[in-house]
Specification:
It is a single chain. This protein has 2 domains: 1-36, no CATH class; 38-82, no CATH class. The chain is 70% helix and 9% strand. It has helices at residues 2-14, 18-36, 50-65, 72-80, and strands at 38-41, 47-49. The protein has a two-stranded antiparallel ribbon with strand order 1-2.
Length: 82
């Protein structure tokens, strides 16, 4: 199934004019490199790309929506045990 989708997309790209194909690949390249750029680091110093950073933000937002959080007081008590 996936192979058929890729083949279909390939055939559509082949039918594009040279200018449109160049424009498409330019946009893909720009998106790829933009998302590969390091934009942040974890508290452990691990670099995060733009895409990874956005994924981490979305995970945090889902945790908040699901009530997976602690209060300031709970955090202070936890910090005191470190």
């Amino acid at each position: 199934m996936k192979h058929a989708c890729v083949e279909s997309l390939y055939n559509e790209i082949i039918l594009l004019s040279d200018a449109d194909r160049y424009s498409l690949f330019s946009r893909i390249k720009e998106e790829f490199y933009q998302n590969a750029e390091i934009v942040a680091y974890t508290t452990d110093g691990i670099p995060l790309t733009k895409r990874e950073y956005i994924e981490q933000i979305n995970i945090g937002l889902k945790q908040i929506e699901n009530g997976e959080l602690i209060t300031d007081d709970e955090l202070q008590k936890e910090i005191e045990t470190w």
